[in-house]
Amino acid sequence: QKEEWKQLKDAKSVSKDGKEVLLGANIGTPKDVVGAVENGAEAVGLFRSEFLYMDASELPSEDEQFEAYKEAVEGMNGKQVVVRTMDIGGDKDLPYLPLPEEENPFLGYRAIRISLDRQDIFRTQLRALLRASHYGRLAIMFPMIATVKEFKDAKAIFEEEKANLIAAGVPVSDDIEVGMMMEIPAAAMIADKLAKYADFFSIGTNDLIQYSMAADRGNERVSYLYQPYNPSILRLIKNIIDASHKEGKWTGMCGEMAGDQVAVPLLLGLGLDEFSMSATSILKTRSLLKKLDANKMKELATKAVEDCETTEEVVALVEEYTK
Ligand code: PEP
Ligand code: MG
């Protein structure tokens, strides 16, 4: 089996009946690009930039960040690297950036909410990203977008920094895709509106599931509610993917669910364009895709979304369709 996987390293990610998708890696530092490439990643679907901040003892400078993003895009050699802007807050804090004590940190001052408030930090990061874009294929996405206004505000700041750099003669790529994480149910419900502004969506199921089910992703007492295959979650995912396609945009997924072997048939059937996961799951997933008929999985997904009432029913249906 491992031998079979190795042979798929440079192969395309394609279903039995010829539907192509992209398999990407999730990374935390530019050094992780090596493992991504070794495991046959066709992209980096999520670079969690907050690790640059967490691994430091003070806010990383523009130059430090620039070097890190440049290393990542150069390491991927022309393949797309989606960098997510700083996602601090929730369960991730910075010792040198004291955040207010909050009753519900996961519902509080977090991610893009901090970036829009602390524009000094945000603009520094955007300038570093813009400068790095010249050295490869870089895309940017904003975490925890809940409203159209947040996306527009973040994008406007990006455009300002881009214009400033260009005016200063700094080389910047002219085709940087700017997208957003889909990890808040409110955003998923207005995906059709957001798709007019965002170049792409990346579904963050780790958070989307916890916010949809109102069940803390780390709390064992309510973990029975943490159900990736629940029809409610599948409906949200379908809404997001369909909305992006209507606008000619693409949707990826960078939550754990993207590399889940039960979820992959469903996601293929729902029309997901890009699956981003830990590098070590890529070859296994490419091998699974080869065995799946995308048209049949479409039928499976439709049934799961329209007919199933429970997670158990969905899992049984996946088994029936993939055996
Ligand atoms: C997610 O929420 O699914 C995600 C990929 O982001 P993180 O796990 O870093 O919150
Ligand atoms: Mg998240």
Structure commentary:
The protein has 323 residues and is α/β, with parallel strands linked by helices. Helix content is 46%, strand content 14%. It contains 15 helices and nine strands. The chain has helices at residues 2-7, 32-38, 50-54, 62-75, 112-117, 119-132, 148-167, 185-189, 191-194, 205-213, 231-246, 263-270, 282-291, 294-306, 311-322, and strands spanning 13-14, 20-27, 43-48, 80-84, 137-142, 178-182, 200-203, 250-253, 274-277. An eight-stranded parallel barrel has the order 2-3-4-5-6-7-8-9, surrounded by five helices. Helix 11 packs across helix 14 and helix 14 packs antiparallel against helix 15. The mean pLDDT is 97. The structure holds phosphoenolpyruvate and magnesium ion. Residues 46, 48, 87, 183, 204-207, 254-255 line the site of phosphoenolpyruvate (PEP).
Brief characterization of the structure:
The protein has 323 residues and is of the alpha/beta class. The protein has helices at residues 2-7, 32-38, 50-54, 62-75, 112-117, 119-132, 148-167, 185-189, 191-194, 205-213, 231-246, 263-270, 282-291, 294-306, 311-322; strands at residues 13-14, 20-27, 43-48, 80-84, 137-142, 178-182, 200-203, 250-253, 274-277. Magnesium ion binds next to helix 10.
Sum up the structure in keywords.
binds phosphoenolpyruvate, alpha/beta, binds magnesium ion, 15 helices
What is the fold's blueprint, element by element?
Layout: H1 2-7, E1 13-14, E2 20-27, H2 32-38, E3 43-48, H3 50-54, H4 62-75, E4 80-84, H5 112-117, H6 119-132, E5 137-142, H7 148-167, E6 178-182, H8 185-189, H9 191-194, E7 200-203, H10 205-213, H11 231-246, E8 250-253, H12 263-270, E9 274-277, H13 282-291, H14 294-306, H15 311-322
Phosphoenolpyruvate binds at residues 46, 48, 87, 183, 204-207, 254-255.
